[in-house]
Amino acid sequence: MPTGKPLSDYQLGQIDLLHEQGASQSRISQFLGCSQSAISNYLNSKTHQGLETTSYGRPKILTPRDERQISKLAATGQYSIREIQRELPFTVSKDTVHRSLTNNTDLEWRKKLTQPPLTQRHKGARLEFARKHMSWDKEWQKVIFTDEKKFNLDGPDGYSYYWHHLKKEPEIFSKRQAGGGSVMLWGGFGYNGKTELASIPPRTDSLGYQEVLKANLIREGPKIGGRGWIFQQDNASIHASRSTMDFLARKNVRTLPWLARSPDLNPMENLWAELSRGVYSHGRQYRTKQELERQIHEEWANIPLETLQNLNDSMKRRIFELILIQGGFTKY
């Protein structure tokens, strides 16, 4: 009996991704256009090879005392998983710390972020965007993702992640009125690097925004995205104005049409979160805008290329998840 065409490495990667996200073998088969038996054989072969399961248990890495130390640090609400790993007096992986916390019934990961409501029209547009870009692979490496971010002296807007101990009162973050002052910055990144951060004055208009792009994006775009680079921005009024779009057209900048109410699809949001974790680690606050901005630029310079590439690569997973959930909000 003739055998079917072997699955490509790309298809195998898609199977792994969709399987991890809970898609059934039937759903994966329909999505990839290959037989369900081929998918079943692949997943079963991984199990038999011990890549997904093993017939033998392994000893626990952490002692009860280790678990209590991790829990104690997390319950302060001041440490990320990576920071907990660094603070511990013993060597352990970040994944082990994460497992310890997620298995702790006294702790809950709380996220004080709001999401804009999605109507059916928004979901339909998101789903159409995902289907249009589902075949993109290396194309994402050409995209430069950009955004603005406000940093307050007392702590970041919309960034309050912490491990909450269920037996304690919810964490209250001390803030002066209006955060005690703030700075607004523009930045961008792609697979091969990041732009400089640019200060944006309050109430910047389209012409002011174009000056930021001229000084930072236009020069750095080809270096970061390579030949045929693509510019991503959201639909803020100064971004989508006729003046700005005409400016980009004159500069021959190729743009990626973006979706309304879709911060979860822009990996720049995740990069801002990574930057904020460094700037505000251990609940740090600042006395002056100059002090805050110096720390922001220092942390930005220290973000490794690997982080940028991992975020860029996540676009393929975001697109697949968006299709699976029919245009709803992704976990990102």
From TrEMBL:
UniProt GO MF annotations: DNA binding
Organism this protein belongs to: Folsomia candida
Tc1-like transposase DDE domain span: 143-292
UniProt-recorded name of the protein: Transposable element Tc3 transposase
Subcellular location: Nucleus
BP-aspect Gene Ontology terms: DNA integration; DNA transposition
One Pfam entry name: HTH_Tnp_Tc3_2
Assigned GO CC terms: nucleus
Transposase Tc1-like domain location: 78-134
Cited SUPFAM superfamilies: Homeodomain-like
First-listed, main subcellular location of the protein, grouped into a coarse class: nucleus
Cross-referenced InterPro entries: Homeodomain-like_sf, RNaseH_sf, Tc1-like_DDE_dom, Transpos_IS630-like, Transposase_5, Transposase_Tc1-like, WH-like_DNA-bd_sf
Signal peptide: none
NCBIfam families: transpos_IS630
